[in-house]
Design brief:
The protein is an alpha/beta fold and about 500 residues long. The chain has 3 domains: about 130 residues, Rossmann fold; about 160 residues, GAF domain (Beta-Lactamase), CATH 3.30.450.40; about 210 residues, Hypothetical protein af1432 (Orthogonal Bundle). Helix content is about 55%, strand content about 10%. The chain is built from 21 helices and 10 strands. Helix 5 links the parallel strand 4 and strand 5. Helix 3 packs parallel to helix 4, helix 12 crosses helix 18 and helix 18 packs antiparallel against helix 19. The chain is elongated.
């Protein structure tokens, strides 16, 4: 059976020096270890071996006991004067001439093995030694990492621009993952901020070019995962990176850190990173407010404005892709947005709530970007599993929009637009009092437009049938007051349609 490349890569991280004055034995041992994936260095002169260990790093030494001009115990004694960490496995071909147990303990020799034509025991001792070295590395990495975290906390609290604070956090965490590339995306929730739905971005490495280039790296899957990490307050691990939510001491998710994962053993680093992010999130609460005193307001606003504009462009592009995935529902989100806007105006809701509803209508189906085209265009009845997958678009859409603070007010609409007043909707089974008025409006107009559109599995229902189904669902599926207003608006549907077309042309 072939070993995995990952296993070979891990083994090649450890350097083994083999010391024996018999070249034939050296060749045999090296051959065995090389076949196992280890890197080895051969030395026949024990005095030269001492100098090599003094000037070069090795993780493990395989050492013959009886050698010339000095024996193995003397070699170890000299090495222990300047290196107490080297793992040493002592070999002997003469059991009766082996050093006493007291000497082995005194010199901190970790392993002992008799030479043999069979190498099973030798390989097991090597593997045991490597495991011990790996554990020691992890402990040391945790120790160094904790020290670095404790040292970095005072820097976070210093009065300095927010950009400098976030960059310091990124620079401190990169060594934990052997990485060079990372970014922070977080909310500007400070009371000094005029707009509490602003977001702050800071990148390092390939993300250091700023917001414009950062958005180019975001696909819908990355956006969904960032939102997922924020909403569920759980870290998400990928093959080449990790997203960790920043959760402050009040349990609020204030942003995320994404870091690429470098080569080597980084499992300990991942655990440390989670601890570091917890400390960083708590520290940022205070540091954020203080740092804004020194931050240029115009520069902050400019960065936020660019992030908002680019992210809006990206979301709008995704929305158009969703519309294009299904010719039967093309223009659906535009119509839903307009219908919802008219209902909001008729109900005399505030300008702020009306704008939320308008945007919610535009993006309510954004999560379908992650649904397969085959499933969306299927003509036959969906299986239970397929229907469950379709229903996931509400959660996916909420996650995509949860990535940045600017959509905080829109996310509940996206997630809940298929909920019903009687609690039989999805994804959360919310009942009447838990469903916002904004969501109730989207729910009614979304259902109406769906009934008024041709679908793969049926023709459109027609105006009167659609209006009747809204009436029948009032009080159970739909909000009665919203249904009443919408039915009034669409009483002269031809005029309503003309107004819709004019609105879309002017948009």
């Amino acid at each position: 059976m072939r070993r995995s490349k990952r296993v070979d890569s891990v083994k090649s991280e450890y350097k083994i020096i083999i010391v024996d004055d018999d070249q034939g034995i050296l060749d045999s041992l090296s051959s065995v270890l090389n076949r196992q994936g280890y890197l080895t260095t051969q030395i026949t002169n024990p005095l030269e071996a001492i100098e090599r260990v003094k000037n070069e790093h090795f993780d493990l030494m395989v050492l013959d006991y009886l050698m010339s001009p000095i024996h193995g115990d003397t070699v170890v004694e000299e090495i222990r004067k300047f290196n107490s960490e080297l793992y040493i496995l002592l070999l002997t071909g003469y059991k009766d001439l082996a050093p006493p147990l007291e000497t082995i303990r005194k010199l901190a020799i970790q392993g002992y093995c008799e030479k043999s034509d069979r190498f099973d025991q030798f390989i097991l001792l090597i593997e045991s030694g490597i495991k011990s070295i790996s554990q020691r590395r992890t402990i040391q990495k945790f120790s160094d990492g904790l020290t670095k975290i404790l040292q970095s906390v005072p820097n976070i609290y210093q009065l300095q621009p927010i950009g400098s604070i976030l960059e310091q956090i990124l620079r401190d965490l990169l060594p934990l993952l052997n990485s060079q590339n990372a970014f922070i995306l977080m909310d500007n929730y400070a009371e000094l901020s005029v707009d509490s739905n602003q977001s702050i971005f800071k990148g390092i490495g390939k993300y250091s070019d700023g917001v414009s280039h950062f958005i180019d790296y975001l696909g819908h899957e990355m956006m969904e995962q960032i939102g997922n990490a924020r909403v569920n307050k759980n870290s998400l691990r990928f093959s080449d990176g990790i997203i960790i939510p920043l959760v402050n001491e009040y349990g609020n998710s204030i942003g995320v850190i994404f870091a690429e994962i470098g080569q080597g053993d980084i499992e300990g680093g991942v655990k440390l990173l989670k601890l570091y992010c917890s400390i960083a999130a708590s520290s940022i609460n205070n540091a954020f407010l203080h740092s804004l005193v020194n931050e240029k307001n115009d520069e902050l606003s400019k960065t936020y404005g660019m992030l908002r504009e680019r992210y809006m462009d990206t979301i709008e592009a995704l929305r158009l892709v969703v519309d294009a995935k299904d010719i039967y529902t093309r223009g659906h989100s535009d119509r839903v947005s307009y219908y919802a806007l008219r209902v909001s105006e008729k109900l005399e809701l505030s300008d702020m709530i009306t704008e939320k509803i308008r945007i919610g209508g535009l993006f309510h189906d954004i999560g379908k970007i992650g649904t397969s085209d085959d499933l969306l265009s299927k003509k036959e009845k969906l299986t239970n599993n397929e229907y469950d997958e379709i229903k996931m678009h509400t959660i996916r859409g909420a996650h995509i929009l949860s990535a940045v603070a600017m959509f905080n007010d829109i996310v509940p609409i996206i997630r809940s637009h298929h909920e019903r007043l009687d609690g039989t909707g999805y994804p959360d089974g919310l009942k009447a009092e838990k469903i916002s008025m904004e969501t109730r409006i989207i729910s009614v107009v979304d259902a109406f437009d769906a009934m008024m559109s041709d679908r793969q599995y049926r023709e459109k229902l027609g105006l009167e049938t659609a209006r009747k189904q809204l009436k029948d669902g009032a009080g159970t599926q739909f909000d009665s007051s919203v249904v009443e207003v919408f039915l009034e608006l669409t009483q002269d549907f031809d005029k309503f349609t003309v107004e819709l077309d004019k609105y879309l042309e002017e948009k």
